[in-house]
Amino acid sequence: MALSYLEEITAFARRLTGNSADADDLVQATFERAFGSWRKLREPAACRPWLFRIARNLFVDSKRAAAVRSQLSLAQGGEASGLAIIVPAEAVERLTARELEAALGRLPKDQREALLLCDLWGFRYAEIAEIVDSPVGTVRSRVARARGRMSALLRKTRSGIGEPS
Amino acid sequence: MTCQQTAELLSSYVDGELAPADRAEIDTHLAECASCLAQVESARCLKHAIARLPSREEPPGAIRARVEALRFGKASFFFARRPVWMAGVALLLAAILAAVAVRNAQSPGARLARELVGDHLRWQADVAPAEVASDDPQQVMRFFQGRVPFTPIAPHLPDARLTGGRLCKIEGRGAQLLFYTCGRQTLSVFVLDRDPGDGRCRDSRGRHVCSRRIGELTVLAVGEMPGQMLEKLLREATL
Which of B12, B42, B121 sits opposite A151 (nearest CB)? Predict the structure, then answer.
């Protein structure tokens, strides 16, 4: 069953590490850990978020904790917490994948991670909270902040994409 | 509820992550506030756009082979303590298994499941409005009449309530997409006029896809509930 998520974990690892070589190592380490601790998985239905959690934990462990904390703390604060800046829906529909990726790349890591787990991989807030080891309220806030920031970034990306309300 | 209070909850609203009472308050506010409604539409479109980005990547063949080998025991132990030729045999076996897995992952059934789950996430009633919103099967079927290349249906599913539908294209051909709610879950039910696969239940992005032939049509249900429950729901479906 776990192997049916190999392609998703590969995509997740690529986004975490930013390069193929490290992503390949992370994918292999993730499944090595998963197969070694299979009995810890209480419910088969939870396999998918469990694998994402293992991958993320391994990635965080591979970095110096202080450096990660520093990156995360730098990412906090300063940005809009809601959806106050309106980008017209039609303009969003015309966005290219490259423009979207560029805007995603400018989000703070924790916000990008929460938004992608929610919108790209379709996890519920409670599942994301398990994966990133944070309270549900924090996940909720990160997703909202990410969307607010994405709107601001995308409005700047394209001329004529909309005016602030 | 004010615009300020609403703004703080809109993101959770779009994700279907609000308590029913909060959701109802926002629905009331949105009915009267064009500005907040525009924000919701914008956030939904952004959510759909991100959902269309690639969520899966094929790993290099060597990585797949190693992961496959891990499944059958401790690869590192095997490679460290056994003669080289045995490691070679293990790698060959893993490569064969990987090739089979790749072929399965790229099979028409797997591709279809990915497409259906993509549509389910994109169009689920929480995220985008239905083109026809009704729990009356006759009204829903009338909407599809002449718009799909077959006589439309709206199956009755036990313990599930029809809420509406919209037109969609599956592999380039017109199909029905029907929405149902089952408890707190949303189900997407696709109706096609051909037999797209082997009848197996499949997983994609954490959702399950099961199918049943009804006459010349194929009904495929997509949802978060376990495959066995989806199969049962389809088995007990009536027209």
Answer: B42
